[in-house]
Specification:
The complex is a heterodimer of chains A (276) and B (283). Chain A has 276 residues and is mainly α. Chain A has a single domain, classed as MetI-like fold (Orthogonal Bundle). Chain A contains twelve helices and no strands. Chain A is globular. Chain A starts with a helix and ends in a 9-residue tail after the last helix. Chain B has a single domain, classed as Rossmann fold (3-Layer(aba) Sandwich), CATH 3.40.50. Helix content of chain B is 36%, strand content 22%. A six-stranded mixed sheet of chain B has the order 5-6-7-3-8-9, with helices on both faces. Chain B is globular and about 50 Å long. The N and C termini of chain B lie far apart (42 Å). In chain B, 46% of the residues are buried. At the A-B interface, helix 1, helix 9 and helix 10 of A face helix 1 and strand 5 of B.
Amino acid sequence: MTSIDIEAGRTVTGSKPRSLRLPRLDRERLLPFAVPLALVLLWQAGSSLGLISDRVMPSPVAVTQAFWSEAADGSLGHNILVSGARALAGLAIGGSIGFLLGIANGVSKLSEQLTDTTLQMIRTIPHLAMIPLVILWFGIGEEAKLFLTSLGVLFPIYLNTYHGVRNVDRGLIEMGRIYGMSNWSLFSKVIFPGALPSIFVGLRYALGIMWLTLIVSESIAASSGIGYMANNAREFMMTDVVVLALVIYAVLGKLADVIARSLERWTLSWNAAYQR
Amino acid sequence: MSIAPFHTTLSLLTEPETDTRTNLRTGRAASPVPQPGAPAKAAVLTLRGVEKSFGANRVLRGIDLVIPAGQFVAIVGKSGCGKSTLLRLLVGLETASSGDIVFTDEEGRAIGPEARIMFQEPRLLPWFNVIDNVGVGLGEGISRAEARARAEQVLWEMHLRDKALDWPASLSGGQRQRVALARALVSRPGFLALDEPLGALDALTRIGMQQLVSRVWRELGFTAVLVTHDVNEAVHLADRVIVLDEGRVMLDLDVPQAHPREHGDPELARLEGRLLSAILGTQ
């Protein structure tokens, strides 16, 4: 009888019991780092045994020392901050434009007919191919980097937002109409949440392109930032600093992805695919 | 969770009739939840010469019907007979090519088409929990707190209150349809359209849902139009069964038996046979 009562909703009000699963979670968290760690150890062993020349590739210890010396005079922190700010500004501008265009073209036939073809055409141009033109337009100041980064992140966010909006269940939209939802409600309660999984895919693509664009534009023309740091070090044959810059890019890239993922899990907790 | 629909059915079968009656009518049972608004007046539907074409395809060819307030009408017919199109016209999802559909109250005054519909699939918003999904049925211009209070009342009536904070994805098929029914009824509509809402459920859950639909209809007194391909379901739920064939009313049959109806009633079986031979005889 108990199970019948539970199904009928008469007895159960408390929360469901959760099993203790910490040890397994720890293992799951640590396992992905095993391969990078092993590679670093191999690399160090290779350098220590003289198999890898210092000129070609500095040892992990040398890179760590470079980290300390760069960090000590504050230039590393400054460069990371400058690069991070550029990346975020580009993401904010390009991402907003891509998002708004994606929503507009997903919702409005007129807007789609007006702009989609143009966007698809511009999309096929590799945005880094515009560097010469961009330098002519903006010189080598912040605007050039901002423009390139914005342009780079715009398209993955546009495409995935558009795709997400177009793929929202028509039945749900019909339901919303019958229940008298205003256009704003229909957007905020049905279309946007329905498109969100796809928008996050776009965001994660965009984050990759964001770093890529920044590295390239900072190596070409900049007086600060990690790309500048690496390029500057190249001129003085400081391979350890060059490698350090690469490591920092990897860490920043991973960090951005982790943030995007946790945002995804938090906002999509209704979706079984994102439940933990 | 695979046995949940069976339990759901059992709970509906064993539920004391008087208990639920008080809940729905007066909200006065041992419940701490707020009172619902007064039930809306049941709608009278008048259809005059309703036609609907999609291009050259004439789906409805002149439908004249009057559905009195509080009547439960079932529309049956073969696939493509126009029954779903007729229902979509009634809830305003399509507009008629010609003819009128008028909603009035019992005194003949025109009322807004306060129509609600239940589809074959529940169409719940997966990113809203159960109580907020029910709140969608209250429409705009209502505070979140009040929407939640009224939604909670209806969930309580549907024996779903302990599911209020669950995601739709964690419910069984029968529970999801009960949430969809709660959403349709939370605004106390004068008219409810049912588009094969039980078609996707397993046999036992289906019987339980039929009893639930019949019970809330008797207690809230709205006008109901059910589209179904299941003649058995039609004669068990409806006061009147209309057979559509190629866009016209072929048969309009009263089912005078009192509610609630027993499965296995010989008179109902006789009507079912008559309807089936009418539908199949037109092939």
